[in-house]
Amino acid sequence: MAQAEDADRWLREGAARHARGEVAAAEALYREVLRVRPDDPNAANLLGVAARQRGDLAAALDWGARAVALRPGAGAFLANYGAALAEAGRLAEAVATLRQALAARPDDAVTLRNLGQALCAMGDPRAALAPLERAAALRPDAAEPMLALAHARREAGDAAGAAQAAEAALGRARGDPALAAQARFLLAALGRAAPPARAPAAYVRDLFDQYAPRFESELTGRLGYRAPEALAALLRRAGVPAERGLRVLDLGCGTGLSGAALAPFAARLEGLDLSPRMLAEARRREGLYAALHEADLLEWLPRHRGAFDLIAAADVLNYLGDLAPALVAIAAALAPGGVAAFSVEAGPAGTPYALGEGMRYRHDPAHVAALAAAAGLAELARAPATLREERGAPVAGELFVLRRGEGG
Ligand SMILES: C[S@@+](CC[C@H](N)C(=O)[O-])C[C@H]1O[C@@H](n2cnc3c(N)ncnc32)[C@H](O)[C@@H]1O
C-alpha cells in the first residue's frame, strides 16, 4: 500500500520535474515507479516522451509501444508513439497510429500537424491538407502549423494557396526570427520574393533530420542518386590519386553515401553536416569517418585553414544561393595545391542563382566558374551530369574539380 502511494507520488513529482526540463531526474523517478509497478502505462509513456527528447529514438519506440499495449486506445499515448514512429521514418505505421490518436482526441493540434507532415513525407500532400488546415485553425497564433500547411499546399501543386499560408505564417512568426526566415524562404521559392543568399540553416537541418531514416533508400532507389560516384569518377579523370593518401573533408556528408565514394582518396576522412540525424546515420558506417562534425559549413571552414588536401561537396551547394562565401571558405580550408570537388544543379545562363519550387538553388555554371577563379581555385575538370531524378525527370547538374594555387 505504502509502495503504491510512493509510486503515485513519484509519478507526479517526475511529471513536474519533466515539465521544468529536468528530463534525467524525471526519468529516474519514472523508473522507480516501474520498479514497484512494472506495468504502469503512464510511466512507460512518459519514459518514451523523455527518450524522444533526448534523441534516443529506439528507446522512445520501445516505451511508446509498451504504453500503447498496456492501455490501448489512450489518445495521449497513441499521439506520442505516433510522433516517434514518424520521426523514425516508419510513416505508414505513424499515420495509422496518429489517426487512432485523433479518434480519441480529434482536436489535438500537435497530432494533427504530425499526421499532416507524415502524410506529406509519404508523398500524399493532398491527404495532409485537411489535418493541417484544422491544426492551423486550432492554434491561431502558432506559425508552425501554418507553415506546414504552406509546404503541403506547395507540394500539392497549389502555389497561390501555399503563398497565402506562407504569408499568414510570416504574420504569426513575429518574435521568432528562425520561423520567419523559413516562411520568407518558402515565399521566395514560390517566386513571391527575391531569393535570399542561402537557405535558412534551421530549414535545412529540420528537412534532413526528418528525411534521415529514409534518405538512402529513397535517393539510391526511387531517385536514382548518382552525384557521389560521378564526382569520384571526375576526380580520377582529373588525376587526383585514389591511393588513400589525402586528408579529405566530406562537406555536407549526410548519411555517408558521398564518404563511401571518397574513401579511396582518403588517408583520413572527416565529415561535416548541419543535421544531427544525418550524422547519426553516418556514424553507423563503422570505420568510414575518422571524425564527424555538426556545424554549418560557412562557420566551420574558416576556423580550419589549410587543413585538407581534398574537400568535396556532393549535392550540398544547392542549399546555398550566393556561392562566393562558400568557395572562399573552401579555398581557405585547403592546403596549397589542395583540390575542391562539388556538384551544383545547373540553372539558366546569366542568372547567378535561382531558387526552384523544389526549394533548392540552381546555379549558372559559368558564374560558378568565375566565382571559383576569384576565390583562387583553378579548374582541373568540369562536366555536366545527371544528379538524380525529380518527379520522374532528370535533374541536370554540373560537376567541378578545382585546385588551389600552390602559392598561398
Ligand atoms: C542531399 S544531402 C547530400 C549528402 C551527401 N553529400 C550525399 O552525397 O549523400 C545534403 C546534405 O548537406 C547538408 N547541408 C546543407 N547545407 C549545409 C550547410 N550549410 N552546412 C553543413 N551541411 C549542410 C544537409 O544537412 C544534408 O545532409
From TrEMBL:
Record key words, sorted: Methyltransferase, TPR repeat, Transferase
Repeat positions for TPR: 7-40, 75-108, 109-142
Keyword Phosphoprotein among record annotations: no
Annotated Methyltransferase domain residues: 248-338
One example of a Gene Ontology biological process annotation: methylation
Keyword GTP-binding belongs to the record: no
Gene3D superfamilies on file: Tetratricopeptide repeat domain, Vaccinia Virus protein VP39
PROSITE patterns membership: TPR (PS50005)
PANTHER family listed in its UniProt record: TRANS-ACONITATE 2-METHYLTRANSFERASE (PTHR43861:SF1), TRANS-ACONITATE 2-METHYLTRANSFERASE-RELATED (PTHR43861)
Protein name, entry field: Methyltransferase domain-containing protein
Originating organism: Caldovatus sediminis
